[in-house]
Design brief:
three-stranded antiparallel beta sheet; disordered C terminus; NUDIX_hydrolase-like_dom_sf; about 25% helix; Nucleoside Triphosphate Pyrophosphohydrolase; hydrolase; 5 helices; Nudix_hydrolase; RppH; five-stranded mixed beta sheet; alpha+beta; bis(5'-adenosyl)-pentaphosphatase activity
């Protein structure tokens, strides 16, 4: 795992994926290319994972989510000339998290933050997002698509028994934990995870697809 870039503001971002494999994007008001994933700074004494959960709740109201993976390295971007950034920082260094949404949409509240970060939201494919964000963040989103897209189809096929994750979900997270411990690239597990997430023909549990 890389280290955050010295001199840059430490930040986190969240790719929140639903059971259709789409991610939650918010629209920032008064911006030409307004769509963005939830993100924000890391507070003193806070871990990146804790910051990601807090920022997600502050910006969207969502607390029904769990971290299933994170980016392979810190990702950086520079503020463009004339941009009103944070203090004297030249840009931000970010750790991104892939999180699975367990809610039904009723808990989404964009007015949690004062003032609100977003004026509306939309579920999008991660592949289409780079063209919808401000140009100076585009490379970040292109890299996120490379790292996280292989796992979106897996989320679509996860089996749930009511509100409790099934043994398939437990196996899925165990696979990711093993990858983190061995520093194995996330993309290398894509094929195995997709095979793992296919239900057996005799499985009588309901596959969530709505």
């Amino acid at each position: 795992m890389s280290q955050p870039r010295p001199g840059y503001r430490k930040n986190v971002g969240v790719c929140l994926v639903n059971r259709q494999g789409l991610v939650l994007a918010g629209r920032r008001p008064k911006v030409d290319t307004p769509w963005q994933l939830p993100q924000g700074g890391i507070d003193e004494g806070e871990s990146p994972g804790e910051a990601a959960a807090r920022e997600l709740q502050e910006e969207t109201g969502i607390s029904q989510a769990s971290i299933i993976s994170q980016a392979q390295c810190w990702l950086d971007y520079d503020f463009p000339a004339g941009h009103r950034g944070w203090g004297n920082f030249p840009g931000q260094t970010q750790m991104w998290f892939l999180m699975l949404y367990h809610g039904d949409g009723s808990d989404i509240n964009l007015n949690q933050h004062d003032p609100p970060e977003f004026d509306s939201f939309q579920w999008m494919s991660l592949q289409e997002l780079p063209s919808q964000v401000v140009p100076f963040k585009r490379k970040i989103y292109e890299e996120l698509a490379k790292q996280f897209v292989p796992f979106a189809p897996c989320a679509q096929r996860l089996i749930f028994d009511g509100q409790n994750p099934s043994s398939l979900w437990q196996a899925f997270t165990a696979h990711l934990a093993a990858a983190a411990q061995t520093a194995k690239p996330l993309r290398a597990l894509s094929h195995n995870l997709q095979q793992l997430s296919r239900p057996a023909a005799t499985n009588q549990q309901r596959l969530i697809s709505s």
